[in-house]
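Researcher: Good morning. I'm working through a list of sequences from a screen, and I'd like to move beyond sequence-only analysis. For each chain I'm collecting a predicted structure so we can compare shapes side by side. This is the next one on the list. No need for commentary yet; just the structure.
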Amino acid sequence: MPAILKIRGITKTYPGVRALQDVSFDVERGSIHAIMGENGAGKSTLMQIIAGAQRPDSGTLEFDGREVRFASPAEAQAVGIAIVYQELNLSPNLSIAENVFLGLEPRAAAAFVDRKTLRAKTSAILNQLGIHFDPDTIVGHLTVAQQQLVEICKSLVRNPRLLIFDEPTSSLSEADSRILFRVIADLKAHGVTMLYISHRFPEVFANCDVVSVLRDGKHVRTKPMSSTSEAEVVSLMVGRELLAFHRQDPAPSREVMFEVRGLTKRRQYSDVSFKIHRGEIVALAGLVGAGRSEMALGVFGCPPPDSGEVRVQNQPVRIRRAQDAMRAGIALAPEDRKTAGLVLGASVGTNISMAALPRVARGFFVNRTAERTLIGHFVSRLSIRTPSYEQRAGLLSGGNQQKVMIAKWLAVQPKCLIVDEPTRGVDVGTKAEIYTLFDELARAGVPILMISSDLPEVLALADRIIVMRQGRITGELTRAEATEEKIMHLAALGTDNVPRE
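Model: Good morning. Structure tokens for this chain:
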């Protein structure tokens, strides 16, 4: 097949960082072309250049037989290029319909939006995806995963010829991912070319035709999926072989470090109770909408539950806001690092130290030497790739942002660490580093509550798995008992449907 997109010598440099260096490869018309690499390899920067959101320092793009230079995303959209960003680009105060057709609103008259047509067209696109949202629902009321589906709808409105997906399934459940893959297959059948960034190897190998690997801003190789393997792609990505992570069983402890009793929030979660022992990693599994993240936010007082009790080291704590949880020794690294986990406009150093300022302050004054020592310790411990502590957090790759958010909460020396989707949108190398870190923390006695939709991750890390469905706990499995099939049965069908050995 001829190339619809030819990338030639693309180079892009930011202050202190060369994001891309002389990148060249072709994208065949009608193909699903995977772009893989570690966080910081330059994948998202390259996609932003193709979509018109960034300009290269040098190099050219040829789209559909002619050279193009985009000054804005609107110019890229005009020739048929659209992008679904990993970091959501929605207006939270507008409805689903208003977001999907933003800038393309059907008009009843010159000055008025035809709201009936707007809702009807939005419903048609939602039905195409197989999802059943009310088009008038305010986007800010949706979960991150639901917003991701709206972002995808938004891109389809423009009938793109080249559609870019940047980690599209990072927030999606297995069921929602299957919807996406069905849509992707349908788009391919209609001749749409797709560029697909993902760190999830099974979905890449199942859905993509070709893979291009980037490493440290350079193009390493482009290969048909049929002539490569996961092990080879990993080796190309990181320049070394990576072994699968296997966590050894820690010495059991009977000391309860963290406990919730009967935690309830109307319409979100009900009668949630569990314990975490010293040095134990407990995973909360379940489908999107099961109430896991809402319950974790309730523990942190955002907002507090209607009833129930939280106990830290066997002492009841009253939590009405985040500051109460922090004083009790609870740390929460939330699912959405962009809006809830980090201040993207602040520096890496500020983000790491902001929650731990009491450790480095004397009265009203911060000991800057102590603060820099603290920052340096966690930058080194988590291998955060940044040109300096003063670099804006928003300019780091997604994986390094995730590390900064985790470092921020480790800096407070928590008595209990809650992490929500800790490896969302990170590469295999960063994922292995985070796994090793959690194992070290657990061995040091820190109890960890991990919310994850990645079942291999749950099985690799957790000592116990608690499964939620529709806001309630439907079952609990030990490491020895747990399988992906058992977890999915508890998550989808409930307690009475777990398969027997």
